[in-house]
Design goal:
The chain is built from twelve helices and 20 strands. By secondary structure, the protein is an alpha/beta fold. Its EC number is 4.1.1.20.
């Protein structure tokens, strides 16, 4: 995949025309507009003024867009599925107290993949009844934490399942099984998780043996099955195929007298990173999944299970942007012009990791003609630290505010302190208010866990 922006990319204000009713289909948050200063405004807040107040780089999340996405998922299942349902947020996309509390206030549960994510969700006030604990190599300590709080633990392999059975003696622990359905999706190989060659889940030839084990382990309350076939998926057919595979296994478990009552189809709905991206809407996705599960259950002659899904990227991806301050410029004759920003691979690892493509604009020049092709480079000591290889922008000067769109998912959650850069602040904007939900790190934070042996201290 080539990191390029189309040579026909228009000025920043054009991106407002791309805003759709379904947040995952928009390049900018739903509240984006151009104000009287020709500046980008999100959630009633001028982005350039936010940078003045909070500094840059700056993650900006739009509360309204997140709430709309949550409601569309929840209402989509309520309208199209005849049984019970639950939407749980795949918090690996962006896990912090503020975001967990926000989606929780919309009635969603939380999918966590580590003890740290579990702790954050609990501290945000999420009920353990709505927390599902994933991961392919949960430690004994993490399993104990899941048992103690009473969440549902998604067992990924034999070691986890047998460790759970041993640790959970004297308790009743809710357990789901993650199974590998063998379904391929047209997405990046690193984010395909449902095909057979995957580190995740029990293989199909293990399912019968696992069911027999659970029959003989009464302290594990086997509530249902889970599968996840990948992320950034635009196709609906793989999810429809998944329903048939999972329902067949669900019926097999029921025939053995196991108390299965939930079916988790994972998440994976894609978002719009460029104008060329055309993902289904949240409404279309929920309708397709609900119909597929209902048809599979009818064919299998079983009652409808509680239907669960785990959106992450499609809840927060396009609801967030990252604002940078433009710095130096370098032109390599007959090759390219670099403009540098005050962040890079430490606040957005996806371009260097996945060759991900993004769109950009100048928040302080929304109507200026975008007629200059530049490479947006980060400030790290790495030649590969490039956010966008060929971005079409207006002419820039030091101090301009460059915005990269659709960075709400996997920006902060994959951020690092490479070169000892400070991880950025994150703010939540809503109706003209801006609240800090993650503080910008300080130099003191950087060395807080460092320890200097006495023998290495320099003589004064």
């Amino acid at each position: 995949m080539v990191l390029t922006e189309t040579t026909q990319q228009p000025a920043g204000s054009h991106f407002l025309k791309e805003i759709a009713n379904s947040p995952n289909q928009s390049l900018l948050p739903l509240t984006a507009k151009v104000n009287s200063q020709d500046h980008l405004e999100i959630g009633g807040c001028d982005v350039t003024e936010l940078v003045k107040k909070f500094g840059s780089p700056l993650y900006i999340m739009d509360e309204h867009s997140i709430r709309v996405a949550c409601r569309q998922y929840r209402e989509g299942f309520a309208n199209h599925y005849s049984g019970d349902s639950l939407v749980i947020y795949a918090s690996k996309a962006l896990n912090c107290l503020g975001i967990c509390a926000l989606v929780g206030s919309e009635g969603l549960g939380i999918d966590v993949a580590s003890g740290g994510e579990l702790y954050t969700a609990l501290q945000a006030g999420i009920s353990p009844e709505k927390i599902y604990f994933h991961g392919n190599n949960k430690s004994p300590q993490e399993l104990r934490e899941g048992i103690d709080c009473g969440c549902t633990i998604v067992a990924d392999n034999w070691l986890e399942l047998k460790t759970l059975a041993a640790i959970a003696q004297g308790t009743s622990t809710k357990v789901m099984l993650r199974v590998t359905p063998g379904i391929e999706c047209h997405t990046h190989e690193y984010i395909r998780t449902g095909h057979l060659d995957s580190k995740f889940g029990f293989d199909p030839n293990q399912v019968e043996e696992v069911f027999n084990f659970l029959q003989q382990t009464p302290n594990l309350d086997f509530v249902g099955l889970h599968a996840h076939i990948g992320s950034q998926i635009f196709e609906r057919q793989p999810h429809q195929d998944l329903a048939s595979v999972l329902v067949d296994w669900l019926k097999q478990a029921m025939n053995l007298g196991l108390p299965v009552r939930e079916l988790n189809v994972g998440g994976g709905l894609g978002i719009r990173y460029t104008e060329a991206d055309d993902p289904p809407s949240i409404e279309e996705w929920t309708q397709a999944v609900a119909k597929a599960v209902e048809e599979a259950c009818e064919n299998a002659n079983i009652d409808l299970p509680k239907l669960i899904c785990e959106p992450g990227r499609s809840l927060v991806g396009t609801t967030g942007i990252t604002a940078y301050t433009v710095g130096s410029e370098k032109t390599v004759p007959e090759t390219r012009t670099y403009i540098a920003v005050d962040g890079g691979m430490s606040d957005n690892a996806r371009p260097i990791t996945y060759e991900s493509v993004y769109r950009s604009l100048l928040a302080n020049q929304m109507s200026a003609s975008a007629n200059k092709t530049v490479t947006v480079a980060g400030k790290h000591c790495e030649s590969g630290d490039v956010l966008i290889k060929e971005a079409l922008l207006p002419p820039t000067t030091a101090g301009d505010i460059l915005v990269v769109m659709s960075t709400g998912a996997y920006g902060y959650s994959m951020a690092s302190n490479y070169n000892r850069l400070l991880r950025p602040a994150m703010i939540l904007v809503h109706e003209g208010n801006a609240d800090v939900i993650i503080d910008r790190e300080t130099y003191q934070d950087l060395i807080a866990q460092d320890r200097l042996p006495t023998r290495l201290k320099a003589n004064k």
